[in-house]
Design brief:
By secondary structure, chain A is an all-alpha fold. Chain A contains twelve helices and no strands. The longest helix of chain A is centred in the N-terminal third of the chain and has 39 residues. Helices cover 35% and strands 18% of the residues of chain B. The chains are: A mainly alpha, B alpha/beta.
Chain lengths: 330, 388
């Protein structure tokens, strides 16, 4: 460390003398932290800069007000209607993630409760390892499993659903057929399995923070195990469980290749049914960026990237906020 | 167009396993591999003459070349690169980043050659930093219709208008009168047609939709006009999108009643069931290397060799055929690089073409090969042609 930088740091905030090793360590970790911050800011700026031609041409909000993505209809001159509508992708991203959450959260909660409260110590170790292994399976493998095992397996079952429930007026609308196997719903199932280990791990952590004396107090007044869990564990860890779900949701929102393989990639509009083909923000980007050669096509894909980032930020921030609130309360 | 990837390999393994389990259904469906004893152009092996290009190897050439572009010919280009390395010691690094990327890179002069499944457009040519760009065709490819129909033993026959109506969502069941009329004697099921198309931008889609826009008025009107009806990506009105050839063939395999389109090389390598397509002379043509080559017979090529081979007039021509090109600057800045390019391109014409059929690509016809050699001879340094 040069004399000059030492003097500068003295000028900003005089501090007691530190050992040289301490100071350089501080600088290195501070540098790492600032690099991360710069990366995130840089990423947002980069997405905005690259999407700027399209935003300038079509207007910032016009992407959100249309649900028709048809690059082949884009021309250099025409501004309206915007052929790069992205409402259906936001819909697809949110819907597939929501399906995943609805399916995964109860199972994850069950696994977490079992592991922390019920499982014999001998079983706990191997079961934890297995859930962690699930998290390590590459997403493309889940995609394969989706195409070659899940699609044929659920076709008869869902086919029955679309024929019966789909025929009911009004409430049958999301169940309309025909079901070809590739759909929002299929993508939701695959995502559910992918986020299960994350939610399980975080839910276990939340449950582990429940004070032992409170649990013992519940037993002391004669609670059964289920009553204890309901009266002590769940209320105590509720915000932690919600946060776990949000972080799982954050993972589901950005998942790309596994979703692309099973969602059917319908980009032209939203479709009519949960059992019909669709697309997500991430799947549309991965499909189209290599040959994006229509006017404003590539820039519009950057618009997709921008909104995907915004969506993920919002969800993750909400999750973090919930964790924070829980910690403050404690 | 084509991507050799782990997914492709795994799907191939998956399909082998699936065939074994389902009791050999693939045996009852006509396969793209020509059957022994069958009549027609696909059973004849016609070998182009491969006469010498007459270009002698230039001394003082660079030992490294870089290229980027189309994914469809990438397996062949990497075979060429490895053989050429042994033959000449020159290293050719090819990145298969997609035709669009290949065109961008040659425009920006960041590679020694580009590669594309579609000829460059006029406005792209005017943007090129290094002046005039030559189109050198290398091989032909084709796009085939593949389907999943249990119990139909004969290969199905299609024509352009029927394919157009199917992919536009206007024909929705297999026993539609139009399909029945094209396939007399075939008992077609009542089941629904599930259209499978590419979800990623692709030269395969470009060839397929270019053909549909020439052969089907319904297709053009449904898509809203000629410009919108063809290209690497179109606004598919119906169906399931699969990423890559493996994505489309995977979805077709998994969905009873499905029809999709994949590259011929992929269909031949995988032994997929393929349909016959009626060409402009009125014959139903089985897709194979011979019928793809036949598309170039009797075809009038423009002098700059920017052409589209779809719906070609030849009697045996398979109508959904196309070519792929290497893109090089006519005026080379660097003499050593220019010489290396001429040497490599001449080697392709003299030796590389003969390797094409190994990987199910159709070699250039004699006529087009001669014209391609003419393009190579135009490559100059300081206004002087390099090859005599």
């Amino acid at each position: 460390v040069s004399v000059e930088t030492a003097r500068q740091s003295n000028r900003i905030a005089p501090r007691p003398r530190r050992k040289g090793g301490d100071r350089s360590f501080r600088l290195i970790v501070l540098g790492s932290a600032l690099t991360l911050l710069a990366l995130i800011v840089g990423l947002v700026v980069f997405l905005l800069v690259r999407s700027w031609p399209a935003i300038q041409h079509y207007g910032f909000w016009s992407f959100l007000t249309s649900s028709r993505w048809a690059p082949s209809e884009a021309t250099v001159t025409s501004r309206h209607p915007n052929p790069y509508g992205i409402q259906q992708f936001i819909f697809g991203t949110v819907v597939t993630s929501a399906i995943a959450l609805v399916l995964a959260v109860p199972v994850a909660l069950g696994v977490a409760l079992f592991l922390n409260e019920l499982a014999p110590a001998r079983m706990r170790g191997p079961l934890v390892t297995v859930t962690e292994l699930l998290a390590m399976v590459p997403s493309v493998v889940y995609g394969f499993w989706g195409v070659f095992a899940l699609v044929p397996a659920i076709r008869p079952m869902v086919g029955f659903l679309t024929r019966t429930l789909g025929a009911v007026p009004v409430i049958g609308i999301p169940f309309h057929g025909p079901f070809f196997g590739f759909s929002y719903f299929t993508a939701g199932i695959v995502l559910a399995i992918m986020i299960l280990p994350i939610i399980t791990a975080l839910a276990r952590e939340a449950i582990a923070t429940v004070p032992v004396d409170e649990k013992e107090a519940a037993y002391a007044v004669g609670s059964t195990r289920w009553e204890m869990i309901r009266a002590v564990v769940l209320p105590h860890s509720r915000s932690g469980l919600v946060a776990a779900s949000f972080l799982g949701l954050g993972r589901a929102l950005g998942e790309t290749i596994a979703v692309t393989m099973v969602i059917g990639n319908r980009v032209l509009d939203r479709g009519t049914s949960l059992f019909g083909q669709g697309a997500t923000l991430a799947s549309a980007i991965v499909n189209e960026f290599t040959e994006a050669n229509r006017p404003f096509h590539l820039a519009s894909l950057f618009v997709l990237g921008f909104w995907l980032m915004v969506l993920t930020f919002v969800v993750n921030a909400a999750g973090r906020l919930l964790i924070l609130r829980r910690e403050v309360k404690r | 167009m084509r991507r050799i990837s782990l997914p492709a390999v795994l799907i191939a393994i998956g399909m082998v396993a699936a065939c074994g389990k389902s009791g050999g259904t693939s045996g009852t469906i006509a396969s793209a591999t020509p059957t022994a004893g069958s009549q027609g152009p696909c059973s004849q092996i016609s070998t182009p003459s491969f006469a010498s290009s007459g270009i002698t190897k230039l001394a003082g050439a660079a030992t490294k070349l870089s290229g980027a572009g189309a994914t469809f010919p990438a397996p062949l280009y990497s075979l060429w690169a490895s053989k050429y390395k042994t033959d000449s010691g020159t290293e050719v690094a090819y990145q298969s980043i997609g035709s669009g990327g290949g065109v961008q890179q040659i425009i920006a002069q960041t590679v020694d050659f580009g590669a594309s499944d579609a000829p460059m457009k006029d406005d792209e040519l005017t943007k090129a930093k290094g002046g005039a760009i030559l189109h050198v065709p290398t091989v032909f490819g084709a796009v085939v219709a593949t389907y999943n129909l249990q119990g139909v033993s004969r290969p199905l026959q299609f024509d352009g208008e029927t394919l157009g109506k199917i992919f536009a969502g206007k024909i929705t069941t297999w026993n539609d009168p139009a399909l029945a009329a094209l396939n007399p004697g075939v008992e077609l099921p009542k089941s629904e047609i599930v259209v499978v198309h590419r979800s990623d931008g692709s030269g395969t889609t470009n060839i397929f939709t270019t053909y549909l826009s020439q052969a089907s008025a319904t297709w053009v009107s449904t898509l809203g006009g000629g410009d919108r009806a063809k290209g690497k990506e179109v606004a598919w009105p119906t169906g399931v999108g699969g990423k890559g050839n493996e994505g489309v063939s995977g979805a077709v395999r998994q969905t009873p009643g499905a029809i999709g389109y994949v590259e011929l090389t992929y269909a031949l390598a995988q032994g997929l069931p393929v349909g016959l397509v009626k060409n402009s002379s009125g014959a139903f043509i089985e897709p194979c290397i011979a019928t793809v080559s036949a598309a170039a017979v009797g075809f009038t090529f423009p002098p700059d060799l920017r052409f589209s081979l779809t719906n070609a007039p030849g009697k045996d021509a398979y109508p959904i055929s196309g070519a792929t090109w290497l893109l090089v600057y006519e005026n080379q800045k660097d003499a050593a690089k220019g010489k290396a390019l001429v040497n490599f391109l001449a080697w392709i014409m003299d030796h590389g073409e003969q390797l094409a059929t190994q990987l199910h690509y159709a070699p250039l016809s004699d006529e087009l090969r001669t014209k391609a050699i003419g393009q190579i001879k135009k490559i100059k340094v300081n206004g002087q042609p390099l090859a005599g």
